[in-house]
Amino acid sequence: MIIIKSKKQIDGIRESCHLLAQLLDFLEDGYLVEGMSTLDIDDYCLNYVKKVGGTPAFKDFGGFPNTACISVNDEIIHGIPSAKRIIKNGDLVSVDMGINLNGYFSDSARTIIVGGKGTAEDEKLCKVTREALILGCEAAGKKGARIHDIGRAVYNHCNREGYGVVRDYCGHGVGLKVHEEPEIPNYVSPLTPNLRLRPGMVIAIEPMINLGTGRILDNDPNGWTVKTADGKKSAHFEHTVAILEDGMEILTRV
């Protein structure tokens, strides 16, 4: 069932989203440095969430053990933070997390290049994936938009660059729960529902884009981490978006 949110509920979700955006802005603006562990990053995220009066949305969801999913290089999503995983300059570090603020849930992800500079190939991957996210959001805000409009915008932009678009995981409804209906794929298929977007819907749009194949490996011994099938790097960007009477609002940016 798709949950249509009231103005009051969207206001609550927006507050949670703004707090999450401020955290991710801070991480992206230079907090991640060579020599940190992914657990160090997770600890900072946990302390921030507590400080603003929230609780980690992902922790214990389906058994996930940490505040943030922190995925490095060829890890697409669901990386488990570890004191043994030390980041280096040039690494692609994706931070995906949410905040539960008084029952209102946010969800957002960024891929950050440690040290602020990577290879030209890696920088282009991140740039194109971020652009695809914005194109997907813009498609959602057009009058009469449907779910396939989002997937088409994301897929076409990334496919033109020869990147692999992950099909096994997708965006989703969000706001009053961590995951809600409907699913928001990053591609178009006649086998997937193509519902019209309605005012009051809140959705997470999240391109997961690989340098090589879009195929995945989900057999990690930890039971969570999903990697690219060919070992090439991946980027992941995500916004929580509210569908309004006059378009859309990206909630997870300040």
Task: Walk me through what this model shows.
The protein is of the alpha+beta class and 254 residues long. It has four helices and 17 strands. The chain has helices at 7-31, 38-51, 120-140, 147-159; strands at 55-56, 69-72, 75-77, 92-97, 99-101, 104-105, 108-113, 164-165, 171-173, 180-184, 202-205, 208-210, 216-217, 226-228, 234-236, 239-244, 247-250. The strands form five sheets. A five-stranded antiparallel sheet has the order 10-9-11-16-17. A three-stranded antiparallel sheet has the order 1-5-6, with helices on one face. The chain is globular, with a radius of gyration of 17 Å. It starts with 6 loop residues before the first helix and ends with a strand.
Q: Which class best fits the helix and strand makeup? A: alpha+beta
Which residues form runs of ≥5 with pLDDT under 50?
none
Find the count of extended strands (DSSP E, 2+ residues). 17
Rg is 17 Å
CATH topology title: Creatine Amidinohydrolase
Give the mean pLDDT: 98
Please summarize the sheet with the most strands: 5 strands, antiparallel
Q: Could you name the CATH class? A: Alpha Beta
Neighbour order of strands in the largest sheet: 10-9-11-16-17
Share of helix, binned:
25-40%
Blueprint (SSEs and pairs):
Elements (H helix, E strand, L loop, with lengths): L6 H25 L6 H14 L3 E2 L12 E4 L2 E3 L14 E6 L1 E3 L2 E2 L2 E6 L6 H21 L6 H13 L4 E2 L5 E3 L6 E5 L17 E4 L2 E3 L5 E2 L8 E3 L5 E3 L2 E6 L2 E4 L4
Antiparallel strand pairs: 1-5, 2-4, 3-14, 4-7, 5-6, 8-12, 9-10, 9-11, 11-16, 12-15, 13-14, 16-17
Helix pairs in contact: 3-4
